[in-house]
Amino acid sequence: MPSTDEVLTLSEAASYLKINEQTARRLAREGQIPAFKVGGSWRFKKSVLDRWAEGQSTARQPRLVLAVDDEQAVLDYVRDVLASEGFRVLTANCGPDAIDLVRRECPDLVLLDLKMPGMDGPATLGHIRQVRASVPVVVLTAFPDSKLMKRALEHGPITLLAKPLSPHLLVDAVRKAVGSPS
Q1: d(Cα 138, Cα 109) in Å, to the nearest integer?
Q2: Which helix or strand (DSSP H or E) is residue 103 part of?
Q3: Which residues of 95-107 are buried (b: 16+ CB within 10 A; e: fewer)?
Q4: How far apart are CA 8 and CA 18, in angstroms?
Q5: pTM for the full predicted model
Q6: Run of H or E residues at 155
Q7: What is the mean pLDDT, run by run of 10 residues, along the chain of 182 residues?
Q8: Which residue among 23, 29, 103, 158 has the highest number of C-beta atoms inside a 10 angstrom radius?
């Protein structure tokens, strides 16, 4: 266990706070978590993180997940499963609506279907990365070996979750990406 005056790396701070490294990086970059840079890398003073976390525990809203799928039944299912676990969930049934929500709401995670009419998942992901480069993305697909998946991977790291979605695997994937609901 680190001492209270210890300076933590990004990885150590994420582990200490029980959040994903991408989330810790985004929070630091957006000034939402106390951090400083040393040689271009984020650093965190443990004692300052402790004070910050204490203040967050009462004021912190539940993690916000954006689910994007052209099938309303999938969106309803994802919303019901994640809301029952304490997450806030927004839904979009097309790429343009998802991009608008990412701009306005700053979700902690995006769950993204690959195969959608109009703007497909990879195109939507490209726009999302332009708006919020570090937001974690979990791709929901029944076609993991498709050309769409290869295109999605061109936009950086993503997690894959195969359809049909089991509630246990869905909740596990979300918790691995962003931690607990609040």
Answers
A1: 8
A2: helix 95-105
A3: bebbbebbeeeeb
A4: 14
A5: 0.66
A6: none
A7: 73 84 84 88 89 64 91 96 94 96 91 92 91 88 72 74 90 87 70
A8: 23
